[in-house]
Design a protein that fits this description.
- With 589 residues, this protein is of the alpha/beta class.
- Among the domains are: 315 residues, ABC transporter type 1, transmembrane domain (ABC transporter transmembrane region fold), CATH 1.20.1560.10; 70 residues, P-loop containing nucleotide triphosphate hydrolases (Rossmann fold, 3-Layer(aba) Sandwich).
- The strands form 3 sheets. A 6-stranded mixed beta sheet has the order 6-9-10-3-11-12, with helices on both faces.
- Strand 11 and strand 12 form a beta hairpin.
- Helix 2 packs across helix 11 and helix 15 packs across helix 17.
- The longest helix is centred in the first third of the chain and has 50 residues.
- It is elongated.
- The protein starts with a helix and ends with a helix.
């Protein structure tokens, strides 16, 4: 246990997280004030009940065998009225707080999602999608539940405790001293348990994020898992991750569940002392039977909220741990803003130049060393090389998903860092090897990048991408709905759809990163021929592993270990019989 405690994740800023959680309630401050007023009213009515009960008992005891039922009924009816009104107000309080927590969770999720849209690509490279989803869904749900139930309970408990203390003191100061003696003990114990349990709730949220990330990853790769008969090993790995999550859950709760019973024991001891001292005071004639009865009821009302607060401490700690994860995401460094005076890239010609570029994803790990290249407007530039040579990294730099460490990337003579990111990226159409389609019609997927696209334009793009015949064979044609992530069409068809999307998009430059890897060679040649016609006057960057498909490129850049080792046309590079020649021959031998 000592070792596990030594590696326990510590809460970073619980007070700051709590302040920020409360800040999300700011827009609802008038509703919160209304809830506070209702809480006070409800508890005053509830606290008046024991006083009326004491009065009824006094009336029953005062007659020495002759009970004044009329007076007893009078006090009983007033008690019924007070408790009924208190219950109705409590229901209203919970209804209001549920509405507030729902709206707060919606606001928080919107903030988190908007933040995700502003984060750089590097954040998503470093973090699992499942862990991010866990923060957006599970962690915010935990916070919302805390706000809708726990905050109301705490507010009600504070009012009840304060009112109970006032009423107990007004009945008997000696008995009140006995009750209040238990308060420091409860505070010290709860504070000690907070230090023990909260780090464990942080660890629990982290482990659930890891588990969600693993599940999301395995579900997306289910076909590959089955193809390689890897199910057993995946099950074993999930068993380990699941065990860690379950252990973290148990480790957090096994300390937390002791808080309520311990506080109950402290309160029961206090009640025993009240009974003993009350009997002595009654025998001495210092207090009446009705007053003792009222005091006991008030002591229970005092201890009840204390127990309730102790029981929801777990949920509060869990909410704090969840909020730290959410706010950590909200505090992530956003994609750098454009430089002051950055200009929009208008009237793009498509001249692209890299000068002595050096770059690495991590400090001290350089991938691109000293890369220089030039792509004139309207030319087809092929980028080839072995795996890890830096081909996709060049695309990341062209699109400014990352900024260079050294040198510069220029478009039409202007350093891309002096251009607005939005205008730069809108100047490119992009098709990746990892295709992305969304749930919607085929028409909507193709027209995704062009507002107001007409059916004729979409059909023309689909024909150019050789996907039109397939679309027309579908029951609803272009109105056919693609399932989430395109599960009801093949990978090749998804890739053709994304190519059609890029063709429709009115951009002066095009990037194709292994864009035809999921189509057959014959279709690939037809697509490239069509793209050459459609891309007249536009600059096109193509990353290709199948070198036979880029023989007609205007310029081929051959990369190896982050450097351009050769460049030229297919014929000139083959005549050199250098690196490209060996690479090309290796695909046919």
């Amino acid at each position: 246990m000592a070792r596990r405690d030594s590696i326990m994740t510590k809460p970073k800023d619980s007070k700051g997280a709590l302040r920020r959680m409360v800040a999300y309630l700011g827009p609802f401050r008038w509703l919160i004030l209304l809830v506070a007023a209702l809480c006070v009213t409800s508890n005053v009515l509830s606290l008046w009940g024991p006083n009326l009960a004491g009065s009824a008992i006094n009336e029953a005891a005062a007659g020495k065998g002759m009970v004044n039922f009329e007076r007893v009924r009078y006090y009983a009816m007033r008690m019924l009225f007070c408790y009924a009104c208190s219950s109705l107000l409590t229901i209203s309080i919970h209804a209001i707080m549920m509405n507030v927590s729902k709206r707060m969770a919606k606001h928080m999720r919107q903030d988190v999602f908007d933040k995700l849209m502003r984060l750089p690509v590097g954040y998503f490279d470093r973090n699992q999608a499942g862990d991010i989803i866990s923060r957006v869904s599970y962690d915010i749900d935990v916070i919302s539940t805390c706000m809708s139930t726990d905050v109301t309970s705490i507010l009600t408990s504070v009012v009840t405790v304060a009112g109970s203390v006032f009423m107990m003191v007004s009945i008997s100061l000696p008995l009140s001293a006995v009750v209040l003696f238990s308060v420091p003990t409860a505070i010290i114990y709860t504070s000690r348990m907070r230090k023990i349990t909260q780090p464990r709730f942080v660890k629990r949220s982290k482990n659930y994020g890891i588990m969600n990330g693993f599940v999301e990853e395995m579900l997306s790769g289910q076909k590959t898992i089955q193809a390689y008969a890897y199910e057993k090993r995946v099950e074993e790995k999930f068993d380990t991750i699941n065990s860690n999550a379950a252990e973290a859950y148990y480790d957090a709760d096994r300390y937390g569940v002791t808080i309520g019973p311990t506080m109950g024991t402290i309160n029961n001891i206090t009640l025993s002392l009240i009974t003993l001292l009350g009997s002595i005071l009654y025998m001495g004639g210092h207090i009446g039977l009705g007053a003792i009865s009222s005091f006991v009821l008030y002591s229970r009302k005092f201890s009840g909220p204390i127990n309730e607060i102790a029981n929801i401490v777990n949920e509060l700690f869990s909410a704090l741990a969840a909020s730290e994860r959410v706010f950590a995401l909200l505090d992530e460094t956003e994609e750098l803003t454009d430089r002051p005076g950055a200009k929009a890239l208008d009237e793009v010609r498509g001249n692209v130049e890299l000068e002595h570029v050096g770059f690495g994803y991590e400090p001290g790990k350089t991938i691109i060393h000293d890369l220089s290249m030039r792509a004139d407007a309207g030319r087809l530039i092929a980028i080839v090389g072995p795996t890890g040579a830096g081909k996709t990294t060049i695309i990341n730099l062209l699109m400014r998903f990352y900024d260079v460490d050294r040198g510069s990337v220029r478009v039409d003579g202007t350093d891309v860092r002096d251009l607005t990111r939005r205008s730069l990226r809108k100047s490119y159409a992009m098709v990746l090897q990892d295709t992305w389609v969304f749930r919607g019609t085929i028409f909507e997927n193709i027209a995704y990048g062009k507002d107001g696209a007409t059916m004729d334009e979409v059909v023309a793009a689909a024909k150019a991408a050789h996907i039109h015949p397939f679309i027309m064979r579908l029951p609803q044609g272009y109105d056919t709905v693609i399932s989430e992530d395109g599960g009801n069409i093949s990978k090749g068809q998804k890739q053709l759809l994304t190519i059609a999307r890029a063709m429709l998009y009115d951009a002066r430059m095009l990037i194709l990163d292994e864009a035809t890897s999921n189509v057959d060679t014959s279709t690939e040649r037809e697509i490239q021929s069509a793209m050459r016609r459609l891309m007249q006057g536009k600059t096109c960057f193509v990353i290709a592993h199948r070198l036979s498909t880029i023989q007609n490129a205007d310029l081929i850049l051959v990369l190896d270990k982050g450097d351009v080792v050769e460049q030229g046309t297919h014929r000139s590079l083959m005549e050199k019989k250098g690196f490209y020649y060996r690479l090309y021959r290796s695909q046919f031998e």
